[in-house]
């Protein structure tokens, strides 16, 4: 299918070759070549917390758009005078390509996208399916949905843009061969599994940590009421708004430690993404963050199933509550290290009647329940 105003220029042309070199399938690389990014990006974007307006600085706007980086397209859910927290973006093209490759969509299939955003990914899906009528995309934010609908129509794609809660999917056209989410979830919605054809795929960013700083890309094959598959890679996406959680107050604030002990290089354990991602998969029911203290940066750990907590300084850890979170983290790290430090792509996820279970190697290998 061809969009009405497509131009083979900018990011689409140069990026096609890079995608092929990285091993992305020819069909996905060709879709990027046919569908440029910039027609889907709004005139105002944000870079490093500051707005960049196309009318005021068109060259900078275009340079930011023509990169393999995420582009923030909305802050504070569109509210005025907020703190400037990103609430919608155009994802990094290489991440989009990896997700579309994992989706393995074929011509003529029925596809549901959760999180329309700018509409660019929906346009790419239309190219891969070959029929815009077989692609449905759901966006919770009515302003974003309307803008994406207009961009898609201007580009020649008469696809279905639905304004609603993506957690509910879109049952009117179910079952779908493929469901792809462009937002992180902790609980894969049952509606997505129910609306996927038996043998179909759900591809979604997933994180066991509420409002966690990063997550993994899950590729799940649906069989009956169960979905199962390996993680593809680590990534970071904004949260599905129905599951978005700003975090709440960590349990350690104003708390007196039950235990204080010295440690070596403790903070490094949580600052290295290649280490902390596997630890997140292996250790359920906790979250972490950072704050400044009179002694410098402190990393806090807070349980989500009890009032347990830990504070990690450069030279010591303080702990409180019924769980010794730092001890659990050290034990998980030692176990992972002894097994050769398996990467996230060696882990997988089963979603079913027993909730969410992460496993290593295969579903009958070592496993950890995440609710």
TrEMBL record:
**Any keyword Zinc-finger?**
no
Q: Name one GO cellular component term.
A: cytoplasm
Q: Where in the cell is it found?
A: Cytoplasm
| Xref: Pfam families | PCMT
Spell out the InterPro entries in the cross-references: PCMT (IPR000682), SAM-dependent_MTases_sf (IPR029063)
Q: Identify a single GO molecular function assigned to this protein.
A: protein-L-isoaspartate (D-aspartate) O-methyltransferase activity
SUPFAM superfamilies linked? S-adenosyl-L-methionine-dependent methyltransferases
Q: Which GO terms describe its biological process?
A: methylation
Tell me the keywords, alphabetical order: Cytoplasm, Methyltransferase, S-adenosyl-L-methionine, Transferase
Tree of life domain: Bacteria
Report the coiled-coil segments: none
EC number per UniProt: 2.1.1.77
Q: Does the keyword GTP-binding apply?
A: no
Which PANTHER family did the record assign? PROTEIN-L-ISOASPARTATE O-METHYLTRANSFERASE (PTHR11579), PROTEIN-L-ISOASPARTATE(D-ASPARTATE) O-METHYLTRANSFERASE (PTHR11579:SF0)
Q: Which family does it belong to?
A: Belongs to the methyltransferase superfamily. L-isoaspartyl/D-aspartyl protein methyltransferase family.
Report the protein name in the record.
Protein-L-isoaspartate O-methyltransferase
Naturally occurring in which organism (per UniProt)? Thermobifida cellulosilytica TB100
């Amino acid at each position: 299918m061809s969009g009405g105003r497509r131009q083979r220029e900018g990011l689409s042309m140069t990026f096609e070759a890079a995608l092929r070199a990285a091993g992305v399938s020819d069909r996905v690389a060709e879709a990027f070549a046919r569908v440029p990014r910039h027609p889907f990006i709004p005139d105002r974007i944000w870079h490093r917390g500051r707005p960049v307006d196309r009318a005021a600085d068109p060259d900078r706007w275009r340079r930011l758009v023509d990169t393999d980086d995420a582009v923030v397209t909305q802050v504070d859910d569109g509210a005025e005078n907020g703190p400037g927290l990103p609430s919608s973006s155009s994802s990094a093209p290489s991440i989009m390509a990896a997700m579309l490759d994992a989706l393995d969509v074929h011509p003529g299939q029925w596809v549901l996208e959760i999180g329309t955003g700018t509409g660019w990914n929906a346009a790419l899906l239309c190219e891969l399916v070959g029929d815009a009528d077989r692609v449905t995309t759901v966006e919770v934010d009515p302003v974003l949905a309307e803008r994406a609908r207009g961009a898609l129509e201007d580009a020649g794609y008469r696809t279905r843009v639905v304004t609603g809660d993506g957690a509910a999917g879109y049952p009117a056209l179910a079952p779908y061969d493929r469901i792809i989410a462009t937002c992180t979830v902790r609980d894969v919605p049952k509606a997505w599994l129910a609306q996927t054809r038996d043998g179909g795929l759900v591809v979604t960013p997933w994180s066991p940590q509420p409002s966690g700083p990063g997550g993994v890309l899950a590729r799940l094959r649906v069989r009956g009421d169960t979905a199962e598959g390996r993680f593809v890679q680590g990534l970071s996406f904004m949260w599905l708004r129905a599951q978005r959680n700003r975090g709440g107050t960590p349990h350690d604030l104003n708390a007196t430690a039950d235990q204080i002990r010295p440690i070596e290089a403790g903070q490094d354990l949580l600052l290295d993404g290649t280490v902390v991602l596997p630890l997140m998969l292996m250790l359920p029911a906790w979250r972490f963050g950072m704050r400044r203290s009179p002694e410098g940066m402190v990393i806090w750990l807070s349980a989500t199933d009890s009032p347990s907590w830990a504070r990690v300084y450069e030279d010591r850890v303080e702990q409180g509550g019924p769980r010794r979170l730092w001890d659990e983290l050290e034990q998980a790290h030692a176990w992972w290290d002894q097994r050769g430090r398996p990467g996230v792509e060696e882990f997988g996820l089963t979603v079913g009647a027993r909730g969410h279970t992460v496993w290593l190697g295969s579903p009958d290998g070592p496993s950890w329940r995440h609710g």
